[in-house]
TrEMBL record:
Residues 4-83 form the HPr domain. The lineage of its organism: Bacteria, Bacillati, Bacillota, Bacilli, Bacillales. Pfam families: PTS-HPr. It comes from Thermoflavimicrobium dichotomicum. Keywords: Transferase. This is Phosphotransferase system HPr (HPr) family. GO terms for molecular function: transferase activity.
Amino acid sequence: MVERTAQCQIASSINLAMVIQFVKKANQFNSYILIETDKSTVNAKSLLAMCLLVPSFINCTVTLRALGTDAEIALAYLKDMLSDRFKPCTNSREKISS
C-alpha cells in the first residue's frame, strides 16, 4: 500500500463543488483510495463519506492511502488537489460547514 500525507489549509467552510471534483478525480483511478484524518478514515471515492469527513479537514493533516496499479499517480494527483485547490468558499449556497 502506498501512503502520502498532505497538509490541508482550508478555511472554516469548503465549496461543495471542490469536494465533488475531488471525488470525481478519485473515481478515475483504478486503485482503492482512503483518506484519513485523526477522527476517521473514509473511501475517497464516496461523495457521502467525503462530505461527512470535510469538517475535520480544517487546518489538519490528512493521510492518503491507495492500493492498486495506479496508486502512486493517484496519490500524487490527489495530494496536489488537497494542498493547492481546496480554497475558501465564495458561494454560500454550496458550503459545507463544520
